[in-house]
Amino acid sequence: MALIIEDGTNVAGADAYSSVADCSAWAVLYYGSALAGSPADKEAAIRRAVAYLDGLKWKGTRTHGRDQSLAWPRDRVTDCEGLAIASDEIPDELIFAQHTLARVEFLSPGALSPSISLGGVVKREKVDVIEVEYDTARMQGNAQEMRPIITMAMDKIACLLTVQPGGRRIPDAVVV
């Protein structure tokens, strides 16, 4: 099913801020090659990235309240330089973050919502003369390997959030 792109006009059923084609062009620009794979896999990665982004605590309020499908567009938001973001605008910073996080999700599905294990999975356990062996092959570092890329996306949108990465709360500024 094709993505429905929110363009700032409250598109019914929107599930992305930018298209697969735009995301692929971004990948070429930043990584030298487009993502290989099916359009359905790329769309799914974009939807997961948008779901992650929409779960963040954004400044301002939804322009169309609960009637809009996604977290953006928003009212009363300024960019990193204090300039007002129009209430019908999808900020470039958000689109950059969508592309970045979609790439993460495409390369490692589930990286934005990883299952964390505090240790290895017990592969073998011996009771007499206690012996435990951990199955380190199942301890994948995918989420950790993607962390620098996720951080790049979060840095791009940090000033649009009410809670900064790391948990520091930022008061909402009101644009008059």
Give a quick rundown of the structure.
The protein is built from four helices and six strands.
**Could you report the average pLDDT, rounded to the nearest whole number?**
84
How many helix segments? 4
Identify low-pLDDT runs: 171-176
Structural class: alpha+beta
Order of strands side by side in the largest beta sheet? 1-2
Beta-strand residue percentage:
5-15%
Total E-strand runs: 6
How far apart lie the N and C ends? Answer: 40 Å
General form: globular
- Secondary-structure element order, as H and E? HHEEEEHEEH
Helix percentage: 25-40%
Q: Main β-sheet: number of strands, strand sense, barrel status?
A: 2 strands, antiparallel
> Rg, please?
20 Å
Overview of the structural elements:
- There is one protein chain.
- This protein is of the alpha+beta class and 176 residues long.
- The protein has 4 helices and 6 strands, in the order H-H-E-E-E-E-H-E-E-H.
- It has helices spanning 20-31, 39-54, 92-107, 142-157; strands at 61-62, 74-75, 77-78, 84-85, 121-126, 131-135.
- The strands form 3 sheets. Strands 1-2 form a two-stranded antiparallel ribbon. A two-stranded antiparallel ribbon has the order 3-4.
- The longest helix is centred in the N-terminal third of the chain and has 16 residues, at 39-54.
- The chain is globular.
- It starts with 19 loop residues before the first helix and ends in a 19-residue tail after the last helix.
- Mean pLDDT is 84; it is low at 171-176.
